[in-house]
Amino acid sequence: MSDADFLIIGGGIAGLSAAARLAAHGRVLVLEAEDATGYHSSGRSVAFSHYGIGGEAVRAMTAWSRAFFQDDPALARTASSLYFADEESRPRLDALGAAMSEFSDSIEPVDAAAIARLCPALRTGAGGAIAGLHDPTGLKLDADALLQRVARDMRAKGGSVLPGRRVASIEATGGGWRVRDETGETHEAPVLVNAAGAWADRIAAMAGVDPIGLAPRRRTIIVVDPPAGAEIAGWPFVHSVAGDFYMLPEAGRLLVSPVDEVEDDPCDAAPEDYDIALAADRLEHYTTVAVTRIAHRWAGLRTFTGDRVPTAGFAADAPGFFWLAGQGGYGLQTAPAMAAAVESLIAGTPWPDGLAQLGVTAATIGPERLRAPACC
Ligand SMILES: Cc1cc2nc3c(=O)[nH]c(=O)nc-3n(C[C@H](O)[C@H](O)[C@H](O)COP(=O)(O)OP(=O)(O)OC[C@H]3O[C@@H](n4cnc5c(N)ncnc54)[C@H](O)[C@@H]3O)c2cc1C
Fold first, then answer.
1. Pick from 215, 155, 124, 203: which is nearest to 29 by CA?
2. Among 8, 34, 40, 165, which residue has the most ligand 1 atoms within 8 Å of its CB, making it the best to mutate?
3. ipTM score of the complex?
4. Which atom of ligand 1 sits closest to the CA of residue 181?
5. Which residues line ligand 1 (CB under 6 A)?
6. What tens digit of pLDDT does each residue of 247-278 get?
7. Residue 373 binned pLDDT confidence (cut-offs 50, 70, 90)
8. How far apart are CA 334 and CA 306, in angstroms?
9. Closest residue to atom 19 of ligand 1, CA basis
10. How far is residue 295 from each of residues 231, 238, 330, measured CA to CA in Å?
11. Which residues form the FAD dependent oxidoreductase domain (predicted)?
12. How far is CA 363 from CA 193, 310, 370, in A?
């Protein structure tokens, strides 16, 4: 048996970022089912921070988190992001631009000629992109470096991770929680943080806590060769405002997604042939890139709450049981803000400086809002 003050289930970016913060306040132990941390969603992200995704609370946490990434050159580099619209999707661009501009002064409307200069492969003009929103201040994150950084921060304060420890049962002890992993070892702590990503509702069920209705959705990425001779390194992270395509350069190749959100069970997500074909088809529809070979492909789960705002907070029905879940498609770019909020909610430190001014309070992200209303 090993004891801790804070027991965290899940060694993804959410669990490890929280662990790094909580380690300043007591003994932290992270239990990770897989043999390595970051094996699931956190290791399958395209790792970009930008304002085009999520609602107001997500944009606010994205804004708050930027300083953490920018303070360490190993974690992020500046890279631009471009949303484009064709004739049909043009009306959506203004609303998106207004929402993004609430958190950034850098969002520039661009016309077809500017789009062609930024990304020469995009089809522009009649039938193609006619207008866009360019943000030259996006951040390309290094997910691996980020996971290593928070794990290092946690260890420096005495915290530890046990990989290969899938939690098999959870029971309330009166003053806290006793967790048994699949090796048979038990671990106890007064506070149990549920950062199990797509599995977080299952962890709750194991503990006898009401689930919050998390929805894992699969997303597919294909990796293709760029056109011969094309200088792609400076291309932006390009998204259709219609929400059916994105593409970004990485290590000399193009990562492409059909922006799929396919319902899935918590699992080791794998790409399906249909979504791979869709990615290639959308690439050829929106750009002049011909898909001659798919060098690599993968899929990962993006797990959403009902209102698509990530959640952090104690369960009302189970003292000491803390939710940290529903990071959706923005778990990396919001991780520093979420971890700072977790520290405040669990260790009682002041609410992260500036986060309330950006519109995010404990109530915004608390799990209470996700509980099913009492029925008849
Ligand atoms: C294709 C794709 C692209 C993305 N792009 C971006 C992006 O550009 N920017 C961005 O910010 N976000 C992006 N995301 C989203 C981001 O990856 C997630 O929001 C984030 O990784 C979620 O982190 P997590 O720690 O909650 O989940 P995970 O990384 O899945 O971690 C949960 C961990 O819990 C463990 N676990 C589960 N059950 C148990 C158990 N019983 N016992 C012990 N451990 C358990 C799992 O093994 C897992 O390691 C993307 C996601 C995908 C799939």
1. 155
2. 40
3. 0.99
4. 42
5. 9-15, 31-34, 39-42, 44-48, 166-167, 195-199, 203, 219, 221, 300-302, 327-333
6. 999 999 999 999 999 999 999 999 999 999 99
7. low
8. 18
9. 331
10. 18, 20, 26
11. 5-342
12. 18, 12, 11
Q: How far is CA 235 from CA 116, 117, 171, 247, in A?
A: 10, 9, 51, 9
| Collapsed DSSP state (helix, strand, coil) of residue 345 | helix
Tokens linked to 132: 């866009």
Taking the CA of residue 168 as reference, the ligand 1 atom at the shortest distance is 41
Rounded to the nearest angstrom, the distance between the alpha carbon of 114 and the centre of ligand 1 is 35
Q: Which pLDDT tens digit goes with each residue over 181-239? A: 999 999 999 999 999 999 999 999 999 999 999 999 999 999 999 999 999 999 999 99
Give the contacts of 174 (CB within 8 A, at least 6 positions apart).
Answer: none
Q: Hey, which of 302, 303, 309 would you mutate to test ligand 1's pocket, going by the most ligand atoms within 8 Å of its Cβ?
A: 302
DSSP assignment of 4-24 equals -SEEEE--SHHHHHHHHHHTT
Domains along the sequence of the chain with CATH: 2-43+143-213+307-370 (3.50.50.60), 80-137+215-304 (3.30.9.10)
| Residue 2 confidence (pLDDT) | 58
The pLDDT tens digits of the residues spanning 311-356 come to 999 999 899 999 999 999 999 999 999 999 999 999 999 999 999 9
